[in-house]
Amino acid sequence: MNWTRELEIGVSLAQRAGAAIAKARVSGFEQSRKADDSLVTSADLASDGILRAGLHDAFPNDAVLTEESGWNGSADAARVWVVDPLDGTRSFARGDQEFSVLVGLIEGSEVILGIAHFPGTGRTFYAMRGQGAFVLESGNSPPRRLQGDPGPVSLTVSPSTSQDYRMALARETGMAIGPIVNGAGAKLICLAEGGARAYFSGHGLSVWDTAAPGLILEEVGGTLTDEWGAPLKYSGLASTFLHPGGIVATVHCKHAAVVKNIQIVVTEFRKKG
Q1: Least C-beta-crowded within 10 Å: which of 76, 113, 197, 228?
Q2: How far apart (Å, rounded) are the C-alpha atoms in residues 51 and 244?
Q3: pTM of this prediction exceeds 0.90
Q4: Domain count, the chain
Q5: What is the pLDDT of residues 14-56, one digit of tens each?
């Protein structure tokens, strides 16, 4: 299958949204808390508006599911765009560079296109299923194919992961801990670029966190599953968008072994309450 038009429009919209986010960093932005107490900024909302409007205009028969606006479109749409307009909001608000715009396209129950644009660096990663993963550097240089080169034998986790949890993960997996990266998208791209061999999220993520960067990782030979080793599901999104449990991603290591070792730690800490 060829999704060149979808890719071109998706990349253009992600970069437009990224430009709005970058502008907000310079001109200033408002911060507030959502019902779940997570941070949201006016930059999140500006990006969301650009992406929803652009995708609806270009693909009116597709549904759009975003973190900030929920489900938009027919409940039985054959294709769904899943969007995180600003992944890593806390990183953005602190002035770091690890935030991104994530745009994925799902057909049936399969992710077929993924885009991860990082406004702080100007880099855009993308993949189409079965066609490899690429990165566009800032400027006019041609896209470069990601080779999936092996990185350090390390495990990246959320900055909120406690020191005790990190030490237990290192003990069971035999991996060093790090780098500590903000945002699910940035962590998965870290693996795809060779910055680490594994990623564990002890809390559930949403489909907009995993769809786009997960496909990019898979297209360089990586694996992404739930914490029990089962494939992530991308069906029934009009009614549910959460992955249950934690997430495990690997590249250049035995995924089943990493899952088994992480489950030892998960069980240990859940027993502690």
Answers
A1: 76
A2: 27
A3: yes
A4: 2
A5: 999 999 988 888 777 677 777 776 767 778 889 999 999 999 9
